[in-house]
Amino acid sequence: MPSAVIVGSGPNGLSAAVHLARHGVAVQVLEAAGRIGGGTCSGELTVPGLVHDYCSAFHPMGAGSPYLSTLDLAARGLQWRWPQIDCAHPLDDGAAGALHRSLEDTAEGLGRDRDRWMRMFASLRDGFDDLSADLLGPVLRVPDHPIRLAQFGPRALLPATVSARWWRTDKARALFGGVAAHHYGRLDRPLSSAVGLMIIAAGHRYGWPVAEGGSRAIADALAAMLRDHGGSIETGVRVRRASDIPPADVVLLDVEPAAALDIYGDRLPWRIRQSFRRFRHGPAAFKVDLAVDGPIPWSSSDCARAGTVHLGGSFEEIARAEQEVACGRMPERPFVLLGQQYLADPTRSRDGINPVYAYAHVPPGFTGDATEAVMAQIERFAPGFRGRVVRSVSTGTAGLAEHDANLVGGDIVGGATNRLQVVFRPRMSTDPYSLGIPGVFLCSASTPPGAGAHGMCGYHAAQSALRHLGSAVRPDEGMHP
User: Fold this and answer.
1) 237 and 263 belong to one structural domain
2) What are the residues whose beta carbons fall under 8 Å from the beta carbon of 391, sequence distance 6 or more?
3) Which of 383, 403, 423 is the last residue of a domain?
4) Beta partners for 354?
5) In which element (H, E) is residue 26 found?
6) Domain ends where: 352, 379, 403?
7) Per-residue confidence (pLDDT) for residue 475, from 0 to 100
8) How far apart are CA 457 and CA 444, in angstroms?
9) Which PANTHER family does the UniProt entry name for this protein (predicted)?
10) SS3 label, residue 284
11) At what angle do helices 146-157 and 128-135 cross, to 10 degrees?
C-alpha cells in the first residue's frame, strides 16, 4: 500500500488526505497546533458558551465545492445553515442592498437595476457548477466547459470599477462592490471583478451558509471521514525541515510557499526557489470578536436578517479604502466584513448574548490597533451598537499569524492578488502543486484556486500525487460520493 504524509490539517490538507485515503493510500496527517482545522476553527473567544469562528466563517464555495459537495460529510456531523438574507450592504441614508439566495428576490430589491442584475447573474447562476469545475483549479489546462468559460472571461477580466458602471443605483453598485472587495486588492485593476462575480453567483446557486456549531465542523467532518478510511492525525508535531517528515511515498504540504522553502531548502529546483522567494503576501485582516446583548440595532431591517453585513458605504468609498490598503496606508474608514452567524445557527448564542464576528481590511503586517475603526463603522450603520457590547476581543495581524502560520502578516487569502500572482500562484506551471522533488507537493491556499474552505487546492494536489503514484483518476471519477 502506498503511503502519504500531509503536513498541516487545514481544509486543504484534510481534503487531500481524504482523497488519497479513499484511493487506497495510507495517510498520516501532522499538525503543529494542538487542534486541527487551520482557518476552519471555532471556539469561545469572548464569554463562556459563545461560539466564534477564528477565521473562515461563511461558505458559499464550501457548499458548492466540486469536491466537498460529493462527500457525505453530513453523515459525519456537518450541517449547513442559511440566514434569511445572505448579505446586506447598508448605505448612509438607511437603505441597503440585500443579496438573497434567490436571484429574483435580490433583483426585485434593486429597483431600476432589477433587469440588469438578472442579466448579469442568471447565466452565471445556471452555469455555476460547470464554471466552478473549470475555475477552481490550475489555470494552464484544457477546460471542460470552454463555452461557459469564454462567456465568463470578458466580464471577469474587467476591473471592478468598470463593472460597477453597469449598475444605475447606489444600492446595486455598493452590493457588488462589497462582494468584489473579497478580491483583497485594488478594485481598479484587471481581474478584480472575477471574485465578486463568482461569489455572488455562488450565493445565487448555493447561498452563503455557515456550519452548524462553527466552522470547526468542516474540519471535524473531514477528519472523521479520513479516520473511517484508515488515516491518522497527530497534533502538536511541528515540521521545520524535511528530516522531520516520516518516510513516505508522497508528501503534501498545507503550508505557505516560504515555509515550504524552509522545509526543503536547496533540494527544491532553482526555478521553484526563485518563484517562492518572489511570492508576495497581500493585505491583511484585523479581527474583532464581540459578545453583544441582543440584536445589533441596524438602521436597515435587511441588515438585521443578514448573515453577512458589508460595511464600507458607497462603491466609490470601498474602492478608495482598498486602494489605500494596497498602498500600505490605513484608511480612516476601512472596509469591514461583519458576521452574524448566530442568525442561521442559534446554537452559537447563550442567554440572549450573541457572538459577532468582524474584520477590517488593513495594510500587510499592520501593527496598529484598528479596533476603534471597526467599531466606528458598525456604529455608523447601527446607532447605539456600542452600548450593547458585553465584551470585545481584538486580534491583530500578528495574532492571526500566531494562530495559523499560513496567515503571514495577517494575509487571510494565501497571497497577494496583484499582477500575475492573481492568476499564476504560487508559480506559472501546468502543475503548480508539484515542488519539483519527486513525490512532494504543495496543497495550501497559496495554490490554485486560492483561499476558501472548499478543499479544491488539496483535491488537485492529491490528484497530482496520485499521478505520481501511477493511480491517478479522472477528475469526474475522483469526485464521487
Assistant:
1) yes
2) 46, 47, 290, 291
3) 403
4) 292
5) strand 26-31
6) 403
7) 46
8) 6
9) DEHYDROGENASE-RELATED, PHYTOENE DEHYDROGENASE
10) strand
11) 80
